[in-house]
Amino acid sequence: MLHHSPERFLACLALDGVFERHPRLHGGAIELGASWVPGLLRNVDHACRSFSRSEPGLKALPMLPSEYLRRQVRFTPFSFEDTAWLIDQCGPEMFMFSTDYPHPEGGKRPFERFGAELDGFDDDTKERFFWLNGAELLGIA
Length: 141
Prior knowledge:
With 141 residues, the protein is mostly helical.
């Protein structure tokens, strides 16, 4: 599981208030897949609710930890993951297109494969996925 260490790191950034203190800090979790992201969002909020009674730093956060992650971190799903489900679970602002073609995890036809995954979504969601989320991450949007 490639994502365990980055997942722990991102959870710490959110829970320890780093994203609150540095709202212009952005990051991308790339080439790690993204099926783990819905659980991350749920778990950091659960930890915050559970431990904020005894942890003043958590109680002082003005937003939920998942809201910092939504605002400041982007993720790239593998082409074989259920991208439609990820967007349904987390929203269109969190995921962005990537490919590692011609490596196997990049897929043989990544534009077509991701395009088919996003078939039922509106143009704004497709635009976010294919370029806007990445452009925002890089500060060029």
